[in-house]
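User: I'll paste a sequence; please echo it back and then give the predicted structure.

Assistant: Echoing your sequence first, then the prediction.
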Amino acid sequence: MAKKVVATLQKKEGKNFAKVIRAVKSEKTGAYTFKEEMVPVDQVKDSLAKS
């Protein structure tokens, strides 16, 4: 699967996007889960700032 993501990001359109991975702690169990999203490069800071 990693190869597919890398290949997608190598295209001309994909160079303006970044993959953001955040660790989110569950209030119920206390375990961490990871949320991944593709965001435009200029919106990375806004994406990380939101909770």
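Strands lie at 17-25, 32-40. The first helix runs from residue 2 to 10.
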